[in-house]
Each structure stands twice: as structure tokens, then as C-alpha cells.
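Supplementary Note 3. Input sequence used for the single-chain structure prediction.
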Amino acid sequence: MADHYEVLGVSRDASAEEIKRAYRKLARKLHPDVNPAPEAADQFKEVTRAYEVLSDEGKRRNYDATGHENGTGGMGGFGGGDFGGFQDIFETFFGGGAGPGGMGGRGPASRSRRGQDALITARIDLRDAVFGTDKTLEVDTAVVCPTCEGSCCQPGTQPETCTICHGQGAVRRPVRSILGTVMAAETCSACQGYGTVIPDPCRECAGQGRVRQRTSLTVKIPAGVATGTRIQLAGRGEAGPGGGPNGDLYVEIDVRPHEVFTRDGDHLLATMSVPMTAAALGTTIVLDTFDGEQEVPVHAGTQSGEVQVLKGLGVGRLRGAGRGDLRVTLRVETPTRLDDEQRRLLEELAVARGEDTVHGTTEHRGLFSKLRDNFKHL
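The predicted structure, written as C-alpha cells, is reproduced below.
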């Protein structure tokens, strides 16, 4: 894993403000909204992860000490998180630890937090699911405040150290317990645990570091998607408070029904009516498909329900190459209204085929069916 300091291009003794400035500079350069290069998305994730660790004082301290984000150096047992619960309780009551002000090593909280993930729906036509498409969507989301650039302060001002907790984010007060009077740590009410206060909050974002804005983005929808498919766009969710990194945006697909075609996996299905005479004599019918007009053969003697398959004219495969098939079910139509001449011709055909007197036929039953009936009468 790359060194977080190297990823942001700062020294190991860089201040919190220097780290924030470096992140903003790289984020503006690598954000997927402004940099369409394929490698930019991965670099943006790496930069965001580095900022999440180094902007949090506790995480940064653990990272500096162990070289690992979880602060354990890969060790389990008492060297890892198992001992942390008891240690936190001990430090809370007795003010131990090597952290600033002896407040258990936690330090003040960071104003920067990751933004929330967002979910929107994209309605597309079946044709778009067959071939894939680029769709422009309108998104109401939180973006970095253009006035303060996420600092939460009115331009020209900056946060000031809290005079109550002296920048620690917590204060101690005496508490009576079974062990006598001990000093308990609690979040500073003056700065809400941040260690700093903002005397002049940004007027545009009210000190949040972000504002609501309606933006447009173009989503590449691959062939083969179906209703319910979700596409993840990393770093395109809501901007985090205090200049924090963006969350992710999820686009859920909703495919509109088509008047002719339905879908069965990677295949398209259609039904075409064929006149009785055409089914008997054989013909070719034309079907307007997503690939243009296609000829569908109707062989002489076609029965209702037979299926003709047009290879490779179905839906593009979401995970794989090629497309499914287009399967056309033929439905033979029997005429319901005949004039006198049509009836006479059909009667002559029936006589010629020996079908003027029709006897219904039944399927021959097998031996086991006959034996079963015989047992019923025993």
C-alpha cells in the first residue's frame, strides 16, 4: 500500500491545513467529473483514503506509529483491538494516555467527514438495455461550498482554538464513584468536541462547508442491464461536511416495457400472427427489430406455437461478449368471418382432403395407464 504522505505529496510533519490544501488540489484534478481518464478514478480513491486517515488526528497518530491504518501493525491479541475497550474506560476516568492534554490520546474531532452515498433511478428504453447508452441525469446533491471551499469559514478568517478546552475537544470534571472522586472526560460543549470554534462562519453554507446544488452528470449504461441493476459511481455522491470526501452515487436502472418485445435473460421474445393459409403454404414475413427489418421464415405446414430463432439479435451480455437471440413465436390465426365464396372454397378443400367429416383423435395410452385403470376396478 502506498504511503499516505507520498500520495498527498506532503511531508510527514505537514500541518492539518497543509494536508487539507493538498487534498483539495488533487481532488479537483482527479475527480471523475472533471477527469475522464480511466486511471483518474483509482487515483481519486487513493487520494481520498489518504486524506481520511491523515485528516483525523487519532488515525494519523496510529498511522505514524505503526504504518497501518488500523494502528495495530497487523498484530492481534493485546497488541490490537482486544485491549482497547478496557484501556478506553481506564483513560476516561483517570485521564491517562499520551494524547494531547492527557485525554486518552483521542484528541479533538475532525470537522471533515465523508459525505453520504446517494441513490437515484434512471429510466431507460429496452433498446438502451440491448445496446447500452450514455444517459444524462439531473442530481440534487451536496457540493463543496464555492465560497469557503469546504473550510466552513468566511473568506479571510479561520477557526480559533477553543478557550474552554484549549483545543483538546474535551474537558475533565470530578465525578464521585465507588473509587472515590475521579476525573471524568466529556465532550466540550463550547466547541462540540472539535477543539476549535468558528467565529465567522461562511455565510453561503452557514458554516457547513457544502451547499445543495442541482447538477447534471452523464452515466455510461452498459448493454445487458435490467430493472434493478445498480451502477456504482465512486466519489460522485454527496460532498462531506467540512471539506470531507464525497460519498458514492448509485444509479438504479428501470427498463420501460416495450410494446412488441419482452425479455428473457439475454434473449428477446416476440409473437407474430400468421394467417392460416400462409402457415399451410409457407411464406416469409418481415419483423421490425432493433437491428432494422428482418425476414422471419414461415415453413409450409407451420403449427401455432412454433418458434423461429434469429441468432445474435437479442440483448447484449452484461458480463461477456456477444448478444442473445431473438425468438419469434408464430401464432396461426383461424378466420372467424367468411363470405359465401370463401366458405365454398374451404368446403371444397375439406372434401378434397377428406376432412368434410371430422373424427376427433386421441393419444394412445401406454401399458401402465391401462394397468392402473384395471387396479381401480379390483
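The chain has three domains: 1-73, 89-257, 262-352. The longest helix spans residues 38-54.
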